[in-house]
Write a structure and sequence with these properties.
single chain; about 350 residues; mainly beta; six-stranded mixed sheet; 14 strands; disordered N terminus
Length: about 350
């Protein structure tokens, strides 16, 4: 997991996990995503703090150690010259802007012969945009195909990130954070390679340009030889973060306790709707295969929203990254999933419970 140290104006990583915790040690999500070898699927990531640069998706068999060496053996091939900005918090396929993707490959990248894609959202030319600094011009002209979104540039929700000890004025209200955040995911199509059937780890690697940083995130996906892949944008129970020793399951012991170590579980957060008690009192913690699509050949097969900025880090749950939601899905995905069924513990519905 990525992590910072206070005072940074953010909780990073989430309560109960230390900075540097091995993300690969986290249990799998409840949702099981299936892909079919040889088909085209959609993958996506979202920006919490825009650092420019470029990214790539790769696979490693789940039976092997998920090292950089393993991932570089199977980079995924991008399909087509277009990508999309998809709004509605990255989920609404009816709200898309087409972008001409900027791909780089051949001998210029690692591994040689693979392809990387440039982050299509320009950063801030003047100051970077962090900690409420100005952002009057983009670093480059946006490549939007239809010209309708030329105003989209900047640092995103990172506008509200900063060292609050040195700059207390950098603290944002919830409304300021909402207005600064990007309400879209960056969608690409990739080809599922013809690999043996089985379980795989999907890696998204983002090499930044504006900072000397590399962000990465992983998701679980099962590849099969025939059949259908997961239905794109299918809703989830929204319970993965709450169950199976995941990052919010520790709060299950806090239903009747609000002080001491449990106090953090009850602190209201703008990106969390208090759904965990609903999961604990239903079948929400049971694992399941995501619905399979029944569409005609050629349509989207699946999408994976791999949470950016910190997300191999589960820091997104602490507000750092919206990026990497996976429909394979990322560990951070749980913070953005669809509303779970109605709660059966009525006493929990009147307060904001934070897992």
């Amino acid at each position: 997991m990525a992590g910072g140290r206070q005072p940074l104006g953010q909780l990073d990583p989430p309560p109960g996990f230390s900075t540097g915790y091995e993300g690969k040690e986290l249990p799998k999500l409840l949702e099981k995503t299936e892909w079919v070898a040889g088909t085209t699927v959609e993958v996506a990531w979202g920006i919490a703090a825009n650092h420019g640069g470029g990214y790539q998706y790769r696979l490693c068999p789940a039976s092997e150690d998920p090292t950089e060496e393993c991932f570089q053996k199977t980079p995924l091939e991008f399909v087509g010259e277009d990508q999309w900005l998809q709004f509605g918090n990255g989920y609404d396929a009816s709200q898309r802007i087409t972008v001409k993707a900027r791909r780089v490959g051949g001998e210029k990248v690692v591994p040689k012969g693979s392809t990387w894609t440039m982050n299509p959202i320009p950063g801030c030319k003047d100051t970077g945009g962090r900690a409420k600094s100005s952002c009057s011009e983009p670093t480059f002209t946006p490549a939007y195909a239809d010209g309708t979104a030329k105003g989209i540039f900047g640092y995103g929700g990172g506008y509200c990130f900063g060292n609050l000890t040195k700059k207390p004025s950098a603290a944002c209200t919830l409304e300021e954070y909402k207005n600064a955040s990007f309400d879209f995911g960056v969608v690409d199509k990739v080809k599922v390679p013809d690999v043996p059937e089985g379980d795989y780890v999907l890696s998204w690697r983002w090499d930044c340009e504006m900072t000397k940083q590399i962000w990465t995130n992983c998701a679980d996906v099962t590849i099969k030889k025939k059949g259908q892949s997961a239905e794109p944008f299918s809703p989830t129970k929204g319970c993965s973060a709450c169950c199976n020793q995941q990052i919010c399951s520790r709060c299950q012991k806090c239903i009747d306790k609000k002080d001491g170590d449990c106090a953090m579980c009850w602190k209201p957060l703008p990106w969390w709707d208090g759904r965990c008690p609903k999961c604990w009192n239903t079948t929400g913690c049971d694992s399941y295969v995501r619905p399979l699509q029944t569409a005609v050949a050629g349509r989207r097969v699946d999408w994976v929203f791999v949470t950016a900025v910190a997300l191999a880090s589960v820091a997104a749950l602490a507000g750092l990254a919206l990026a990497l939601k996976l429909k394979g899905q990322s560990q951070s995905q749980a913070a953005r999933e669809v509303q779970a069924p109605a709660a059966t513990v009525t006493e929990m519905t009147s307060e904001s419970f934070r897992p």
